[in-house]
Automatic annotation (TrEMBL):
It is an enzyme of class 4 (lyase). It comes from Caulobacter henricii. Catalyzes the aldol condensation of dihydroxyacetone phosphate (DHAP or glycerone-phosphate) with glyceraldehyde 3-phosphate (G3P) to form fructose 1,6-bisphosphate (FBP) in gluconeogenesis and the reverse reaction in glycolysis. Zn(2+) 1 binds at residues 84, 198, 232. This is Fructose-1,6-bisphosphate aldolase.
Length: 363
């Protein structure tokens, strides 16, 4: 049984100064691709399921799939994480299905569209932290709303996110507020907003500091050196994946993602979890388009799903190496959620702050 909590993984990543990609799962091929990649380079794994994934695959199917993956690869620690939980009920049911980590995204209201007040975010996140930590399960919170600093638009591309114009204040996490938020909620990891957005259309040019505010990460890390930071919307949208889709009948307008070297810069400043979904979606779609274009007589799904899985494996493997998690799986001995629950109860996992603030986590 190699299931592990996010907190234990990120503590290890911080100690050894690396980052971990978190890949989204919806089906068996994606699960196998992630695990084959991790096995090839000896990396621990974060697999995450969105609410959409849970309703697409069915909670029971997802839970059994993760059990199967952990059994096939018993030597790889696997964290199963709820991506963008929209309220306590979503997080609680994820825990019931064996997730070892949940994201309570209180930057948006329960509709996952309307930007929430700071007070609401603190209250709902704190509630989920109390519930999850008593089960030994980790919690990621989010402060600041994802969206484009180029256009000011919130991101509604993949069905959640705000559909309108936001101010820079809303699109960039405030470092002072981040300190207060971590202190008041006791989250294990904090997702911050600094110009990334979900999906393929993040930037209309290779991003610079005006539209990808890595300085916000550096400032938050300076104030919260012991808090694990999370970057959402961090697919790199590689040119070769855009090209293969377009070469085989796709119509994706030219676009730019988050360059891997910017993520590596983030990892030097406290970023420990990096969410990547779009790159894998594009890799699979490109491979499927290619097979169907080249072999129009083909009708066995395995003929295109196997190359799709292989294309995703390559992306996952590259990210494990680029973010530095490769080589660490066999160094980690997973603690049970029961052990983690005791550690939370004892206070040893409470947020540690720089001496200057003198705050302690309320939990
Ligand atoms: O942040 C993500 C999931 O929470 C995924 O981001 P991308 O769309 O950039 O892959
Ligand atoms: O939001 C992050 C992931 O890309 C999941 O997207 P989804 O909600 O369409 O499953
Ligand atoms: Zn999304
Ligand atoms: Zn996200």
């Amino acid at each position: 049984m190699a299931r592990i909590t996010l907190r234990q993984l990120l503590d290890h990543a911080a100690e050894h100064e690396y980052g971990l990609p978190a890949f989204n799962i919806n089906n068996m091929e994606q699960g196998l691709a992630i695990m084959e990649a991790a096995d090839a380079v000896n990396s621990p794994v974060i697999i995450q399921a969105s609410r959409g994934a849970r309703s697409y695959a069915n909670d029971i199917m997802l839970a059994r799939m993760i059990d199967a993956l952990a059994e096939i690869y018993p030597h790889i620690p696997v964290c199963m994480h709820q991506d963008h939980g929209n309220g306590p009920a979503t997080c609680a049911t994820a825990i019931q299905y064996g997730f070892t980590s949940v994201m309570m995204d209180g930057s948006l209201m329960e509709d996952a569209k309307t930007p929430a007040s700071y007070e609401y975010n603190v209250e709902v996140t704190r509630k989920v932290v109390q519930m999850a930590h008593s089960c030994g399960v980790s919690v990621e919170g989010e402060l600041g709303v994802l969206g484009s600093l180029e256009s000011g638009m919130g991101e509604a591309e993949d069905g959640h996110g705000f559909e309108g114009v936001l101010s820079h204040d809303e699109l960039l996490t405030d470092p002072d507020q981040a300190v207060d938020f971590v202190g008041q909620t006791g989250v294990d990891a904090l997702a911050i907003a600094m110009g990334t957005s979900h999906g393929a259309y993040k930037f209309t040019r290779k991003p610079d500091g005006d539209v990808l505010a890595m300085n916000v990460i550096e400032e938050i890390h300076r104030r919260l050196p012991n808090t694990h930071l999370v970057m959402h919307g961090s697919s790199s949208v590689p040119q070769d994946l855009q090209d293969i889709i377009n070469q085989y009948g796709g119509e994706m307008p030219q676009t730019w993602g988050v360059p891997v070297e910017e993520i590596q810069r983030g990892i030097k400043h406290g970023v420990r979890k990096i969410n990547v979904d779009t790159d894998n979606r594009m890799a699979m779609t490109g491979a499927i388009r290619k097979i169907l274009a080249e072999k129009p007589g083909e009708f066995d799904p395995r003929a295109y799903l196997k190359p799709a899985k292989e294309a995703m494996r390559k992306v996952c493997q590259a990210r494990f190496v680029e973010f530095g998690s490769a080589g660490h799986a066999d160094k980690i001995k997973a603690l049970s959620t029961a052990t983690m629950a005791r550690r939370y109860a004892s206070g040893e996992l409470h947020a540690k702050f720089g001496a200057s603030t003198g705050k302690v986590a309320a939990e």
